Structures are given as C-alpha cells and as structure tokens.
Amino acid sequence: MLALYGHPFSSYTWKAKIAFYASGVPFAFRILDPEHPDNGAVVGEATPTGKFPLLVDGDAQVFEATSIIEHLALTQPDARFLLPANQLAAAPVRMLDRVFDNYVMHPMQEIVAAHIRSPGAPDPVTLGRMRDVLDKAYPWLDRWLETYDPPHPVTLLECAAAPSLFYADWVYPIPMQLDWLRQWRAQLLALPAVARCVDEARPYRHFFPPGAPDRD
Ligand SMILES: N[C@@H](CCC(=O)N[C@@H](CS)C(=O)NCC(=O)O)C(=O)O
Predict the structure, then answer these.
(1) Which of 55, 79, 132, 180 lies 20 to 30 A from 22 at CA?
(2) How far, in Å, is the centroid of ligand 1 from the Cα of 151?
(3) Rounded to a whole number, what is the largest CA-CA distance in the chain?
(4) pLDDT tens digits, residue range 65-114?
(5) Atom of ligand 1 nearest to the CA of 65
C-alpha cells in the first residue's frame, strides 16, 4: 500500500491527493500533527527540510508534489492520464505546473507566512511584493485560459492549479473582471477529486492564519 504523508489543510498535500483521488489509486494517508510524531519523523528523515507531502512506495521515497504525481503517472496504469504520454504534449503541462507553483502557490504561501510571523500585523513589504506577483499572474492566467484545451479533466496542471488558486483567492481575491480565471477556479473546485480535498480540509479552516473567508 502506498503511503502519503501530509496534512488535509496543506495546499501541496492537496496537490498530491487530487492525483490519487482522480485516479482511484489506493493509498494510506499518514497525517502530520502533534498526535502522530512518528509520521513527522519519517518526513523529517526522508526530506531535506521536512516539507510535505511525502510518498512512500515500497523502497521509493518521493517528495515534491510534482514528483509524486510524475511517480504515480509512471508507475500506476490507472494514473497515466495525469501526464500526456507524448512528451511534446507533456511539456506545456509541466510548464504550467511550474507557473502555478512559482507564481500563485509561492506568493500565497509567503502571504500566509507573513501572517504567521506577525499575527495581525503582517509585513507590508512582503504583502506588497507578493501581491505584485499575483497581479501579474492572475491576468496572464486569464488570457492563457482562453485557449487552454485540457488533454484530460485532471492532469498535473489541474492538480497544481486547484489548491494554488483556492488559497490564493482567499489571501488576495482574483479581480471580478477576470471572468475566465474566476469561472475556472469554480470549475476546478467542483471536480470530485478537488471537492473531496476541500471537504476534508474544512475542519481546519479556523487555523488559516490570515482568516478564512466564509465561502467555498
Ligand atoms: N516544493 C514543495 C513544497 C511543499 C510545501 O511547501 N509544503 C508545506 C505545506 S503546504 C510545508 O511543508 N510546510 C511546512 C514547512 O515548511 O516546514 C512541494 O512541491 O511539495
């Protein structure tokens, strides 16, 4: 049995879990919390800095959510759809995965981290810099969506997009005029694999450092 270490409220854990749920590949979820220190120890030993998620598949320890999804696509017949078999078709999926991690997930995480560092008084310089990134990424994605033709309803790209847009919109709402992006975010959240992650994370919303909005 494959084992996935992570937390239900963690955006990068969602990214991996969406791939599992969409493909139906069975796995044991090993939660990282104070009640399960053994799970934390496994992650601490297997990864450079203790970041999660971590996948343990027999002797293989795979970290970095993108690599976990690539591992599933390569090793599990039911998960092949996560990446197009044709490498030329897979390249833009991988490129957009980087776009979501670097220009949506990263600024979102930095904004959250600023709230954790200084509750109630997050560093305005960090907030400003990260909002600048999202101010560029959101309109770019809105334009990109006009011509995006998904090779499958859930690929590596959607696994990256759903959690990053979910939480980014919480910390810095997507502007009303970016219709394509706002609608696509809603469509992603309605995918069964994503909706399951949203529901499993619901009990932890009150922990969201900047404060979770009353929606989604
Ligand atoms: N590049 C990593 C990032 C993972 C990451 O940032 N995980 C967060 C949870 S969403 C984490 O481990 N936070 C705890 C920490 O930084 O110690 C990936 O793609 O998996």
Answers:
(1) 180
(2) 28
(3) 49
(4) 999 999 999 999 999 999 999 999 999 999 999 999 999 999 999 999 99
(5) 20
How does DSSP classify residue 159?
A: H
| Amino acid at residue number 95 | M
**For residue 27, what are the CA distances in angstroms to 23, 72, 158, 203?**
11, 11, 20, 22
**d(C-alpha 19, C-alpha 2), whole Å:** 13
CA dist., res. 101 & res. 195, Å (int): 20
pLDDT digits (tens, 9 = 90+) for 135-181: 999 999 999 999 999 999 999 999 999 999 999 999 999 999 999 99
12 lines ligand 1 (CB under 6 A): yes
Cα 207 from Cα 119, distance rounded (Å): 12
Type of residue found at 133: V
Considering just the CA atoms, what is the radius of gyration of the chain in Å? Answer: 17
Ligand 1 close to Cβ of residue 50 (< 6 A):
yes
pTM: 0.98
Distance, CA of 6 to CA of 4 (rounded, Å): 6
Q: What phi and psi, each to the nearest 5 degrees, are found at residue 30?
A: -110, 105
Tokens of 10: 């963690």
The β-bridge partners of 63 are 54
Closest-lying ligand 1 atom to the alpha carbon of residue 16: 20
Q: Assess whether the C-beta atom of 10 lies below 6 angstroms from ligand 1.
A: yes
